[in-house]
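User: Before I run my own analysis I want an independent prediction to cross-check against. Here's the chain; please return only the structure tokens and, at the end, one sentence I can use as a sanity check.
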Amino acid sequence: MAGTASVRQRSMLAAFNPRNPEFARWGALPLRIIVGYGFFAHGLAKLEKGPEKFVAIVDALGVPFPHVAAWSAIMVEFAGGLLMLAGAGITLLSLPMIAVLLVAIVTVHLPFGFTSVKLMEVTASGPKFGPPGIEADLLYLACIAAMFLIGPDPVSVDGIRARRRGS
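Assistant: Structure tokens:
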């Protein structure tokens, strides 16, 4: 019996080995959740504040076709975030999400450097922060690239579809 338990323990340890491709696929799950929720939350905020306000911001930044660009960004963030949370169509979602991030980097965050959190002062009403740099955008880009390279996690819609197809 002792030998059987030892074999079983080694088998379980092997399953949780980060070098095991089946275990490594789970690495996409936390990335998918944070990217999906982050995009969804940003899209929802734009919808709640009034999309026309975001259109005005995009126009002030000098982005061509501001109405189309703003609504495209909102839809990529809101709907793309929900699809990412579900793990549906991650390969296809990657390109528009990357595009939204690159536009944000170039039009908004690049002039403010790298750091996303810039503590300017602490007042009686709480901390005051300066404008964010490109750090968070780069983290999102890295997460999307990692998900693309890792492939679908086992509990994503894409992962379930792949298992059903037998691939």
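Sanity check: The chain has one domain: 27-165.
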